[in-house]
């Protein structure tokens, strides 16, 4: 089975990023959106990143426009929005699909490893979060309503 570290994804700047570059780090993967009721979570995500990045933790943000067209901007607009409004400096990737026939391989892998409620692999909304250990094993999946600060304990255990 393909693991998360076997994959790559396009960054906001258009460069391809090997996810093996994050091997050895505890990683939180989040599907994001700039015009969502949960967009305020960028602030909490950035705070987590700042608190733990020195300990081998990273966050990978993947914008998605599949839920209520809440990420309509270009990659350049998304990056500017995240930086200007929330000071985001964790890695952000190009827009992806997280459900359906064009689901990005990263999310195919994550959803298979950590199905949601009642075993459903489908992602229900923006800001679904996947916590991955240093070896690339998906540890848990968190609902959009789970605030980033609620993940501190789980992150600390893996660090």
TrEMBL record:
Q: Read off the CDD domains from this record.
A: GSH_Peroxidase
Ordered alphabetically, the record's keywords are:
Oxidoreductase, Peroxidase
Output the superkingdom of the source species. Bacteria
Kindly give the InterPro entries that the UniProt entry links to this protein. Glutathione_peroxidase, GPX_CS, Thioredoxin-like_sf, Thioredoxin_domain
**Matches recorded under Gene3D superfamilies:** Glutaredoxin
For molecular function, the Gene Ontology terms on record are: peroxidase activity
Task: Spell out the family assignment given in the record's similarity comment.
Answer: Belongs to the glutathione peroxidase family.
The name this protein carries in UniProt is Glutathione peroxidase
Taxonomic lineage:
Bacteria, Pseudomonadati, Pseudomonadota, Alphaproteobacteria, Sphingomonadales
């Amino acid at each position: 089975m393909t693991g998360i570290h076997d994959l790559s994804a396009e960054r906001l700047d258009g460069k391809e990023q090997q996810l093996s570059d994050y091997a050895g780090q505890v990683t939180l993967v989040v599907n994001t959106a700039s015009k969502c009721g949960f967009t305020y979570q960028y602030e909490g995500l950035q705070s987590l990143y700042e608190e733990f990045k020195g300990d081998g933790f990273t966050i990978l943000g993947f914008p998605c426009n599949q839920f209520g067209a809440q990420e309509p901007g270009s990659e350049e607009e998304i990056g500017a929005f995240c930086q200007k409004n929330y000071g985001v400096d964790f890695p952000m990737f190009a827009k992806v699909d997280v459900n359906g026939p064009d689901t990005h391989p990263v999310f195919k892998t994550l959803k298979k490893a950590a199905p949601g409620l009642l075993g459903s692999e489908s992602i229900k909304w923006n800001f679904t979060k996947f916590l991955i250990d240093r070896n690339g094993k998906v540890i848990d999946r968190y609902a959009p309503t789970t605030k980033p600060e609620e993940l501190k304990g789980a992150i600390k255990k893996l660090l």
